[in-house]
Amino acid sequence: MEESRGQEPGTLELLADYLQRPSLLLPLLGLAAFVVYSGSLSFEFVWDDWPQIVNSPIIRSWSNLPRAFGSDLWYHVARQQVYYRPLFVAWSMLNFTLFGLRSWGWHLGAVLLHVGAVFAVFWLALRLRLEYWTAALAALIFALHPIHIEPVTWISAASDTLLTIFAALAFAAFLIGRDAERTAEKKQRAAWCIASLALLACALLTKEMAVVFSALVGIYAWLNPAARKSRSGQKVLGAVMEAAPYAVVTLAYFLLRKHALLESIGQFNPNRGMMDVARTLPLVMSIYLRQLLVPLGLTGLYYTPYVTTAILSQVVAPAAVLAAALIGLWCWNRHEGNSIVAFAGLWLLVGLAPALYLRNFSSGDFVRDRYMYLPSIGFAILAAMGLRRLPSIKGWSAQAVQGCAVLLLCGGYMCASIAQQVYWANDLMVLVRGHALYPDNPYTMTGLAKEYSKRGADDHAIELAESVVKAHPEYGYGPLALAEVYIHAGRFEEGRVWLDRVNPDYLKSEVGMAGVAGLYGQMGDYEHAFALCSEILQREPNLYSALYNCGNIHLLDGQYRQAEQLLSRAVQLGPEQAAPRHFLGRALLQDGRSAEAQPYLLQAVVMDPKVWDYHYWLAESFEESGNLSAARTEYQQALQLNPESKETKLRLFTLEAK
């Protein structure tokens, strides 16, 4: 015994004792989360980042903050939207103030939000009375799980991360206030309750998923009644009473939301009834379960249309898997003898509930990884508890078995997260990944068609866009995409036919009008184009896409001074964007001001060297200024990027002849 007392503790014991302090553990958890997602700092703006960030007129000044509380997040993109997220707009304003439109800064903000969410999950797990190391493991699993790739690497999905921080802190504050009722700290109860309600209000004003919070409070209060020997009726009444203040805050949010969103829609497809939802719901839920358990094949562009056939494989089998999972959780909860397993499982299910009303989505858009960010707290707790319950195996102590399992699981999560997040690096990679996994997704097909069109692959772009309107005639953006690629390829008559078939609701928004104005301008129909431009700029004089598109229309019409004015303003609003600089340079070049044009053309090439006509026009400016060697180099670069460009071949041939 004396010898045992004299032994010095081993390295692991010292490390465990050292990390027993949250002030030392949390920085390590945060560092792990940051390292895994640090690669995203080099990613570009993708997908909805363009309308929501780059093209948002509201985030450019803090004076617009009151407007954020009185309008829809996408008010400038499409009418009749339902995205009321003023605090996410405020976060966007902060990012714009700090970083402008430098995408690395926005990605840094998104990663730091994830780190903050990891801290909040750890605190919540402790307040749920999880043992210290189980709470730490839950936070680590939450930090590394690949299902969080979308909300961490895609800036527009950071609303889910911010929402989760507020919701987790609000629930932890609720638990502290509830515990204070049983201790001598009753004076602090009111302060914690007020803090919890305020944090809930912040969560609601960040994203709609927080509407389930009062239900989570009620469930916890029912599973853990204040009076240990309460009857069923008393338990229900007590749960309702504890959830009531949160329900009042949620009701106030709904009233504010209704006042702000004067126009809204309740569903995308009123022709689909509840039977369609009931048939499809087991498949959707089983996909989410699969992504939690085996997080491979992740993308932002899943395609899961309503189930109409294959009832056995798409309804019965998924329902059986879900039933088995529920039975397993029920048995586990009874074995544990406490309510933590049940509450974690219900947090997972109830947290996902707003995303399970499928009629709020267009067909096929039912599964999105970002919807799992808040619910996955429940999964992280369950996974941590399961790992901590692993027994000893054939000479291996339980501690050794658990340690190996944690290393394998978290190592696998890290590898899967790093490998799959690269598909969010730019628009093309997002779309190629989505198309490879779900080739029937019409959104992916139209997006790829536009990307190919930008890169000069007109035939491939037209083929993809035509397949969309044939295979998915119900898809509203199919005609617009086909019109765009036809017009970009110079097939104006066919483009005009499909432009006339574009959903008229698209033309009710400023962004839609700006896009269509640009297409009319490319066809030479300047009367229609300028009429739309005038209307847009009266409504939103600082709308980036309007200034950019309308400046280009003036450029096409030979009105170089007017083009210069609009494009100069577009450059001011988006100084980190290459396109307005390029076209401003073209306006100056075609106005005979080559010396002024060349810096803008050169800056555009440096900022985005992948666009062939940036090199072409820079080469033309070099040729005009007599720098034939530099011109030859740029023509050759343009030809490498677009080997089918006849004008580049001709100019290079002429230059070589000199």
Task: Write up this protein.
This protein has 658 residues and is mainly α. The chain is built from 32 helices and no strands. α14 packs across α15, α21 packs antiparallel against α22 and α30 runs antiparallel to α31. The longest helix has 29 residues. The radius of gyration is 28 Å and the shape is elongated.
In short:
The chain is mainly α and 658 residues long. The chain has helices at 2-6, 11-18, 22-37, 49-54, 65-68, 86-99, 103-127, 132-144, 149-153, 158-180, 186-204, 213-223, 232-260, 274-293, 311-336, 340-352, 376-388, 398-421, 427-437, 442-454, 458-471, 478-488, 492-499, 510-523, 526-539, 544-556, 560-573, 578-590, 594-607, 612-625, 628-641, 646-657.
Main sheet makeup: none
- How much is the radius of gyration in Å? 28 Å
In the predicted model, the low-confidence regions spanning at least 5 consecutive residues are 1-7
Strand residue percentage: under 5%
Shape, per Cα inertia axes: elongated
Our count of helices gives 32
* Structure summary, number of beta strands: 0
Mean pLDDT: 88
User: Level of helix content?
Assistant: 55-70%
Distance between the termini: 97 Å
Oligomeric state of the chains in view: single chain
Give the class from helix and strand content and strand pairing: mainly alpha
